[in-house]
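Quick one:
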Amino acid sequence: MKPHHILLADDDQDHMELMRMSLNRASPSSTVETASNRDELLRLASSNQFDCVVLDVYLQRFTAPELLVELAPLQPSVPCVVVSSSEAQAVVIESLRLGVSDFVPKDSAISEGVLWNRVEAAVQKAQHAQQEKRRINRRLTALSEEARTDALTGLPNRRVIDDYLNDLRSKNDRRASSAVILVDLDHFKDVNDELGHAEGDRVLREASDVIRRVARQADIVGRWGGEEFIILCQSCSLSRAWEIAERCRAALPECVQVPEGFRAQTGSFGIHHSKDGPPDSTALERADEALYLAKRLGRNRVRTSRAAELQSIVEQSASKSLAPAQAMNHFVKTIRDSLGPNQAGHITNHGSRVQRLVCDTLRQQGTSDFDYSAIELAAKFHDIGKCAIPEEMLALPRKLTELEHRIVSEHVDIGADLLRACSAPELAVSILDRHHERYDANSDANHAVDAEPHEVLAICDAYDAMTSDRPYSVAKSKSEAVEEIQSQRGTQFHPTAVDALLGTLEACVTA
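Output:
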């Protein structure tokens, strides 16, 4: 028999003593504490935890119903046995209606074992009720968790993400920037159609593991629906969000297993960055626009809402029936005020200097059969894609990491997309698209005596960059830049392009 801690309250001292003795005889190891008035009752109830309260229906000026109201917060879920000298049905019903566990007539309460048996039954009933309540609460918690968790991946589902976003917006904390990254698994329908839904489910699970592993610990990763996932990043710059997306993009084909011969599982990524606080009501829509752009341009790439916005502006400029060069000039004029100083420097002054140098160097080489309007367009706007690269990344006062360099290099693809959007000649797009290629990376390079326009653009771009102040380096003198270019003759740069550029620079000096 398990001992209990019992609180016994009665203003009849003799009867209370008889009940205490009855309880102690039935269970000598149990502890019985007594109170003869309301104040003693509440003092004991507030400083001790009891297993059961035995309460006279009248305690001086107070009735059991009045005292039960005050006891409830002090002894929550503790059963109460009411003792009364009246056996009238109305008294019994009223006592039970108030939530007491049992009703015992006074003369029975002092009979051998009766009160203890009622107390023991009340305690067991209360314990069983608590166990059942805990079981129900656990089940409700589990059901609630199931309703908020994607069963396949174990990630929070769309409902949870929506609630989280609403909570962030309600707090309106404008002290830190944030980002939304949407992820779409490329050609996932082919996985289900050709490999079956079981394999499709496995791919989804493995992809979710990759995204969860790459995201920061503080980021919220969820399944947005179908083959789409979402990453919510708080206190996150655009550069950092792009790094997260780029790491995910690189990891997906490496970590998601597909049968030999089947297309590697890649992903397209759309990012929207909010500079002044949590994602606003348009954040998801703008991230989706960026994702759609990434998919439209060939998939397996990262695009930002800024890139989507720029693409739209170029397409609007092209729709005005402007020539490609006019459309690009109109585009630059439209976005000029939104550019950071490094973005603007790359796109305007640097582009104009390189354009002149490329044309002079091609003529120095003796090349005349190219479409110079296409070459000028590519040269002037060869860095146009940097308007979509985060300003903070272009302004870094140090050498870029490998990942940062990979992200900045995306400006080439973005620039080529922008030129295509304004109906630029394919030659211009090709020159821009290839101007970062190394000479020695081309197996056919040694067979071309004259440098191609993209090779001339590469060396002219490098020379102007070296002789200009950049956040990561001070400008070199012309002689220092020439010496470095000569050291890369036949490796990074086409030999004829090197010779032609040096001839152009010498002609400028003597002119």
